[in-house]
Amino acid sequence: MKDKIEKLVNEKIKELNVFVDDAFISEEEGKKIFNIVLDSNEVIDLNKITDASRIINKIIDLNESVLEDCDELDIYSKEKGE
To answer: How many CB atoms lie within 10 A of CB 69?
Structure first.
């Protein structure tokens, strides 16, 4: 799953100096959530997450099958120190 997402988005978000750290499906409150975790060699601020999310959402819209019938897409950054 992570490999698919990396191939789709890493090239497009590298200009933001972020990359896909993980991609997985979780279940919360009965909803299937597709999680994409971003990381960087520097601190990722909210503006970078927003910009990366816009890029990723456009790519996912064109490749909906990767979501595997999930109800939601959640894109967030890895916390430093983890």
So the answer is: 9
Tokens of 49: 């997450």
> What's the whole-model pTM score?
0.91
C-alpha to C-alpha distance for 52 and 50, rounded to whole angstroms: 6
What pLDDT, in 10s, does the model give residues 19-46?
999 999 999 999 999 999 999 998 899 9
Place of tokens 């191939």: 7
| One-letter-per-residue 3-state SS of 29-73 | CCEEEEEEEEECCCCCCHHHHHHHHHHHHHHHHHCHHHHCCCCEE
Q: Which two tokens stand for residue 50?
A: 């927003």
What's the CA gap between 65 and 68, in Å, rounded?
Answer: 6
pLDDT of residue 80: 60
Which domains, from first to last, does the chain contain? 2-77 (3.30.300.70)
